[in-house]
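Our consortium's second objective concerns turning raw sequence data into structural hypotheses that experimental partners can test. To show how far this objective has progressed, the report includes one record in full. It was chosen at random from the queue rather than selected for favorable results. The single chain below, 170 residues long, was entered without modification.
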Amino acid sequence: MCEWFLEYVKTFKRTTKLVFLGSGDKSLLPANDCFVDMGFVSEARKLQLIKHSKGVINLSQNESFSIVIMEGWLCEVPSVVSANCPVTRNHVRRCNGGFYVSNSGEFCQALKQLEDDGSLRERLGLNGRDYLKREFSFDVVLSRYLNEFTTSSEPELRALNERLQGTVCA
């Protein structure tokens, strides 16, 4: 990702910063002013940084959900993900909440569009937020679980459903 980002900065003559949050091996970051390693920050600071960013980048190829892109979408910020990760690519595709990229050229073009087109950036972020509300709100997820319990032919799930009848979760 760092090499691709350096290519973007050089190709399009940008002063953009790539900000890293959380743990990680600081020795992997090239010595360049365009990289900022914030380390661990408070939850409030993290959300503030995401909200004021142009996008959230997660190029991992081994994600099973990716909380960080979901946090970005909750803040109405689009995502750039790896085209080689079926899970994040599918989330982005289903909601049109960003870009999935497979090489440095696509990565550079995605960042250029996010930086240059505020209207597009806003639409993609809103698409992501709407997707989360539609697919992952508490009520939607709870309904899916309850539906699975009530329609399952598995004895264990039927027994659990019978025990939960009339239970209110708080």
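The partners drew two points from this record. Strands lie at 18-21, 35-39, 56-58, 79-82, 98-101. Residues 4 and 105 are 8 Å apart (CA to CA). Both points have been shared with the crystallography group to help prioritize constructs.
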